[in-house]
Input
Amino acid sequence: MGAEAEVDAGTERPADRRVLPRRPFGRGVELLVLGFGGAALVARWGSPLSFDERVQLVRHAYERGIRYFDTAGNYLESQRILGVALQDVRREVFLVTKVETTDPAHVRPAVESSLRQLRTDYLDGVLIHGAPGLDRMTVSQVMKVHGELARLRDKGLLRTIGFSAHSHFDKALTLVESGGFDHCLLAYTSCLRRRAPVRSQRLASLREACIARAHRRGMGIAVMNVLARGVLGAFAQHIVPDFRSDRAQRLPGAAIRRALSDPRVAVLVIGMRFRYEIDQNVGAIVSGKPYGEDDRTLLADFWTRAVHHPLIARIYPH
Output
């Protein structure tokens, strides 16, 4: 990792030129707190930009100070875009991908494919993907995949091993307790439907246990779905049409501050499809504003009105 980079001056307000803060990410590593989620680069999943425009989007994220970039083998063209965008600054970024295979024999080919697409000879981290992956395997099967990743780590193809989890926090907790993982990526907004409050409360409790025990073990903790897959961002007024525009624009910042109010969380991995989203999220962090009662009230008001929308049922089926 290179030295901390100032946020690109451009035409941004002076307050936005401050450096993104760092937090410990496991043992001996510190990372800037905002990460770029590579799923947002996939055309089939909603990106309206050309390939070259998406390359420039990633460069803009880098120029605004972002150094953690997350992708996966099944994120279609995402790895290729990141490879082109970051090849000349590879040593300055923390590059993470994921493997989805349940067959240990397929782990090395998957990692080698990622290395080619990302135009690098090593990966800073490889995660065993939560879905597909962790959701389809027993803990014993996961550890066999882990064993193959450990062999590749010994050969220098990757530096750290982690896993991601969207809702299988019972398995995730067992993996944390195994002591074999350097870091984890956990869904931070989930289980919002009121139809199954007991299930929701159980998963929330298991997720908290994962965070607590991972922290005690010195693991790096990254979180995803901070903006609820865009529900607290670009889609907010589609879901609650009468939610005032000025209040909707404040939702991403409130959600980001909520996640960062937990000092155990090191990195927020957020998918950003446009430059303004990158600028908005960076600005929310470097402003230095703490998570407060106005943020809590805003988020509670939005979710009270959004929770019955059919889209929420599809995104959060539990």
Q: What stands out?
A: The chain has twelve helices and ten strands. Residues 1-16, 190-198 have pLDDT under 50 and may be disordered. The radius of gyration is 19 Å.
